[in-house]
């Protein structure tokens, strides 16, 4: 892809915290062109998205009509991309609609997607020969943490995951924590079998039970952004892997990479690690 034919990009959820960062970084990327900003928040509608995020007038108003924006993207010279950071309850329909129009989705809202929905989207993407990237976490640090966790799981039989996020995050557990548990379970090992039978005197006090008996605990507090610990234990020792986010710019290299890579795909790919 050359600068003469930049990638047309739509941001869905443009007024949200992640959406605003994506707007800023796409606008500064020479091989991309921002063509649309979509958001359902009535406080943002009609406002220039550049003014809204503090980078000056971009002559792109925020609208709440996703399909009209997708139609616009199909009229571009090169394949369009939609970056979706919206509500978990909407993301499945958003992805399916984008693929139907031939616009390639890069999806950061993953906590609301079920295994059945992911399978359906994978089949739909294949049938349409339209690339789609579903990324639970765009941070390079999380990819490294997950790789280290997989290595550690060969030597530890007991593990729990603690994920902490800001109190405006609506899904729990996070898509990243679910993905990490799934990656740990790929070996087929059943974890935490040495624990005695437990009784929860208060419901869900031990978190949720994910893949292969891995417990995930979710914390939601103001002041947090995104944090994850994978804690392994064995007799006489505890091994903790932790990743902390101090601001959302850490996700942007992964987002921009995903935008560039999805135009080269004809199927659905799940996870940033698959494109690094």
From TrEMBL:
GO terms for molecular function: 4-hydroxy-tetrahydrodipicolinate reductase; NAD binding; NADP binding; oxidoreductase activity, acting on CH or CH2 groups, NAD or NADP as acceptor. The keyword DNA repair does not apply. The active site is at residues 165, 169. Pathway: Amino-acid biosynthesis; L-lysine biosynthesis via DAP pathway; (S)-tetrahydrodipicolinate from L-aspartate: step 4/4. Its main location: cytoplasm. Coiled coil: none annotated. Residues 7-138 form the Dihydrodipicolinate reductase N-terminal domain. Residues 141-276 form the Dihydrodipicolinate reductase C-terminal domain. Signal peptide: none annotated. Keywords: Amino-acid biosynthesis, Cytoplasm, Diaminopimelate biosynthesis, Lysine biosynthesis, NAD, NADP, Oxidoreductase. Pfam families: DapB_C, DapB_N. InterPro entries: DapB_C, DapB_N, DapB_N_CS, DHDPR_bac, NAD(P)-bd_dom_sf. It is an enzyme of class 1 (oxidoreductase). It catalyses: (S)-2,3,4,5-tetrahydrodipicolinate + NAD(+) + H2O = (2S,4S)-4-hydroxy-2,3,4,5-tetrahydrodipicolinate + NADH + H(+); (S)-2,3,4,5-tetrahydrodipicolinate + NADP(+) + H2O = (2S,4S)-4-hydroxy-2,3,4,5-tetrahydrodipicolinate + NADPH + H(+). One of its GO terms (cellular component) is cytosol. (S)-2,3,4,5-tetrahydrodipicolinate binds at residues 166, 175-176. Its EC number is 1.17.1.8. One of its GO terms (biological process) is lysine biosynthetic process via diaminopimelate. It is found in: Cytoplasm. Belongs to the DapB family. Catalyzes the conversion of 4-hydroxy-tetrahydrodipicolinate (HTPA) to tetrahydrodipicolinate. Homotetramer. PANTHER family: 4-HYDROXY-TETRAHYDRODIPICOLINATE REDUCTASE 1, CHLOROPLASTIC-RELATED, DIHYDRODIPICOLINATE REDUCTASE. This is 4-hydroxy-tetrahydrodipicolinate reductase. The lineage of its organism: Bacteria, Bacillati, Cyanobacteriota, Cyanophyceae, Oscillatoriophycideae.
């Amino acid at each position: 892809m050359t600068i003469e034919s930049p990638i047309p990009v739509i941001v869905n959820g443009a007024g949200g915290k992640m959406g605003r960062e994506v707007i800023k970084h796409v606008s500064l990327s020479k091989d991309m062109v921002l063509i649309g900003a979509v958001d359902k928040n009535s406080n943002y509608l009609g406002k220039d998205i550049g003014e809204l995020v503090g980078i000056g007038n971009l002559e792109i108003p925020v609208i709440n009509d996703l399909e009209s924006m997708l139609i616009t993207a199909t009229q571009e010279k090169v394949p369009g991309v939609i970056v979706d950071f919206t509500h978990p309850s909407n993301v499945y329909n958003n992805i399916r609609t984008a693929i139907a129009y031939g616009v390639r989705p890069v999806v950061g809202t993953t906590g609301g997607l079920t295994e059945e929905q992911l399978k359906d989207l994978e089949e739909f993407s294949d049938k349409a020969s339209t690339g789609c990237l579903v990324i639970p976490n765009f941070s390079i640090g999380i990819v490294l943490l997950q790789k280290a966790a997989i290595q550690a799981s060969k030597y530890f039989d007991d593990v729990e995951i603690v994920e902490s996020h800001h109190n405006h995050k609506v899904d729990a557990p996070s898509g990243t924590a679910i993905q990490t548990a799934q990656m740990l379970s790929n070996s087929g090992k059943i974890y935490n079998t040495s624990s005695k039978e437990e009784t929860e005197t208060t419901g869900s006090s031990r978190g949720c039970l994910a893949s292969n008996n891995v417990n995930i605990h979710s914390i939601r507090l103001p002041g947090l952004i995104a944090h994850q610990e994978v804690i392994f234990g064995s007799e006489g020792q505890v091994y903790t892997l932790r990743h902390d986010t101090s601001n959302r710019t850490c996700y942007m290299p992964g987002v921009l990479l995903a935008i560039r890579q999805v135009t080269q795909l004809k199927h659905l790919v799940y996870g940033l690690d698959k494109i690094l």
